[in-house]
Specification:
It contains 22 helices and 15 strands. The protein is α/β, with parallel strands linked by helices.
């Protein structure tokens, strides 16, 4: 519908003889229902070109803006154009939902582009802690949204199983003077360690693989996250891809030797100093492996790379963007990083440590065990990735409207209950005539329902996954408000009752899809 409105505005402006790109026409949902179904600020963009006040331009646009699905248009100060849909166009969204069912909201905006989405990627030196766990729900939700928008998505967990941290893990298990990691899990690994090998790096390789299979992968499964591949950094070295990317960079004249080391000319791309690729002892830096990994992603045929990282990886993200766009010469937008801020766990208003396995910081397993998968996932994705989270355990355990995920799930369960009662009473939903749905609460639900397909496209474009649970809360809120004023099984007018039942079925479908995208359960009873 947004695209229809955008095109209609463009046609009206063209008819007035004014020049503007259709892509520059921003169509938004107004903050209040009284301001229409859609609004645009296009008059402000034209003001400088035409040397007219925005309100004058807005009035001219409003005078010629027409469309089959537009009831009327208003120009309001200081220059907005508010657009009101016809009642029929609003009501017809129900037919679309009933026909498309779980496919509602899907599109082909992605045009089948191949996207590689990498997230979590915690070091296999211990259980997943909250410092990197937040990327899990964000990444998995984004993957589902992109699939719904017509992209072909492949998800990976990059296993850092080759760097110095693996050698340190080996020292820690051996318990020698170079140990750094501690905790019950290290003690357990030390007991389970085979007699051979005794080399710290080899012990580290053994432990990293064990931690991945017995800790990290099961935790991901408990959080409802699956990956198409756990990609081993070690494989980049054994397959010769690290050496290959070094030769590739040398071929572009971006590597030089100095003081026994090999350096990357990063200052050519705005860095404050050049960076080491190969140390004086011949060891490769993590930077070179990262270059090899990202080159390998494109070599596998992916069109776009998305990586979810912690906020402390800002410099690495910037460096990789340069590598992709300047050195691999991929188009702008081919590489995108989502940086997540930190999570603090709170109880009784105070920060707490969750881990029962000391030495692993905040263990994700402990939080899942405490409050459940649904609360963790919904809580982690309910905020913008750029916002810090204070995860309130007390709130997550509440079974009331104060608990966001419970509130949304309860709305779905209530809709299911209404449908069961309607069936018991022999009430059948209307599938064609929705003209009776004119109550303000009904119209508010219809507007929100119609916004769902636009939401999918917006999130697929911006990667702002917090918009999905936000939509769920808003839809649940509008439903609860509707249910308080609009009777269904108790309505005497059969036409009204049947149309309202159809509205409930449609809203339930959209809410179920929203919860499913969030990766939380969709209860029929609570």
């Amino acid at each position: 519908m947004k695209q229809y409105i955008q095109q209609t505005i463009f046609d009206a402006i063209q008819g007035l003889g004014w020049d503007i790109s259709s892509e520059d026409i921003l169509v938004e949902y107004p903050p209040e229902e009284a301001m229409g179904d859609y609004t645009t600020n296009v008059a402000f963009l034209l003001s400088k070109k035409l040397h007219k006040a925005p309100i004058e331009i807005a009035r001219e646009i409003a005078s010629v803006l027409r469309g089959e699905q537009i009831d009327h248009v208003e120009a309001v100060m200081p220059g907005y154009v508010n657009i009101y849909s016809t009642a029929t166009s609003l009501q017809n969204i129900i037919s679309q939902v009933l026909q498309e069912q779980e496919q509602f909201g899907g599109s082909q905006v992605g045009k089948g582009q191949k996207v590689l989405l990498e997230y979590i990627s915690s070091n296999p030196t211990g259980p997943i802690h909250l410092g990197n766990a937040r990327g899990g729900p964000i990444g998995s939700v984004l993957a589902e949204v992109l699939k719904k928008a017509g992209y072909k998505v492949w998800s990976e967990f990059y296993v850092n199983d080759f760097g110095n941290q693996v050698k340190i893990l080996g020292h820690s298990i051996l318990g020698d003077e170079e140990k750094q990691y501690s905790g019950a899990y290290i003690d357990e690994l030390a007991k389970q360690r085979p007699a051979e090998p005794t080399d710290p790096r080899e012990v580290g390789f053994w432990a990293a693989e064990k931690i991945l299979k017995e800790d990290i992968q099961p935790t991901c499964e408990r959080l409802g996250i699956s990956f198409d591949r756990f990609f081993s950094e070690k494989s980049l070295h054994t397959d010769g891809k690290v050496e290959a990317v070094l030769s590739f960079l040398k071929g572009k004249g971006l590597v030089y030797e100095k003081e026994g080391a090999q350096w990357y000319r990063s200052t050519e791309f705005g860095d404050d100093k050049d960076r080491v690729l190969v140390k004086t002892d011949g060891r490769y830096t993590y930077r070179l492996a990262d270059f090899a990994y990202h080159k390998d992603k494109f070599d596998r045929g992916f069109d776009r790379l998305i990586t979810v990282l912690g906020a402390d990886h800002h410099s690495e993200a910037k460096e990789m963007k340069v590598f992709v766009e300047k050195i691999l010469e991929k188009q702008e937008g081919s590489y995108k990083t989502i940086l997540t801020q930190f999570v603090r766990v709170m109880r009784d208003g105070k920060e707490v440590k969750m881990s029962k396995r000391k030495g692993t910081y905040f263990a994700l397993d402990d939080l899942i065990e405490e409050v459940g998968r649904d609360a963790v996932r919904f809580g982690f994705i309910s905020y913008s990735a750029t916002s810090h989270i204070n995860f309130d355990i007390d709130l997550a355990l509440e079974r009331s409207e104060k608990n966001p995920v419970y509130y949304v799930q309860y709305a779905h369960a209530r809709m299911a209950s209404i449908m069961r009662k309607a069936k018991e009473k022999g009430l059948r939903m209307e599938e064609k005539d929705f003209s009776t749905l004119v109550h303000p609460k009904e119209k508010a639900l219809l507007r929100k329902l119609r916004a769902f397909p636009d939401l999918i496209e917006v999130v697929a474009d911006t990667y702002e996954t917090h918009r999905i649970p936000q939509y769920g809360r808003e839809l649940a809120d509008l439903f609860h408000s509707f249910y308080a004023e609009c009777h269904i099984t108790g309505e005497k007018d059969l036409r009204i009752a049947s149309a309202r039942l159809a509205l409930v079925v449609a809203v339930k479908t959209a809410l179920a899809e929203t919860l499913d995208l969030c990766g939380v359960s969709v209860p029929e009873k609570m």
